[in-house]
Known about the structure:
Blueprint: E1 2-4, E2 10-13, E3 24-27, E4 34-37, H1 66-70, E5 73-74, H2 109-127, H3 129-138, H4 141-144, H5 146-160, H6 162-167, H7 170-179
Antiparallel strand pairs: 1-2, 2-5, 3-4
Amino acid sequence: MTVACPDCRSVFRVDPAKVPAGGVRARCSVCGGVFAVPDPGGAGAAPPVQDRRAAPAPPPATRVPVASTAAPAVAPQPPQAPPVAAPAPTPAAPAPARKAVNPFLSQDPRAKARRLARALVSDIVVYHPEKRRDGLRDGTLKLLFEEEILKSWEEYTEQVGLELAQSTPFFHEALNEILADGQPIFP
């Protein structure tokens, strides 16, 4: 029997005796797509071989050449219409700007600066949980994290630029939201 990959339309010969009752899923050797190979069923189907090592080889007259089973046959393609030239785009109608689905793929420098500020401050919290807890409890958060905040600020300004870093509140917002647990400690 023959089966065809629905993705690339490659056709393969399959021994019906090797397909178990209920069918099987197969992976196309050409495109990698997965598709169902149905159970040939019916009275004419040969029973599946239980132990392939003990099964005798078929007589040479009925053996299929290896090249025809390994190489996919090309499925006939329907006739295609001749290509039609697409109309020239009008320069007066620019395409609307699409918003990136994933915010991490955004190329907006402000969005990148906000993400970086939050990441740097989150790292401070992750590496010093006890120190943060003590600083929140005692009201000494600024003093305890002075060195870490300075290092993170230097990294932030190096990556986003001093002008953007000073003109946006992202770093201070991240400090208040993440490090100070929502308290307005950092102006």
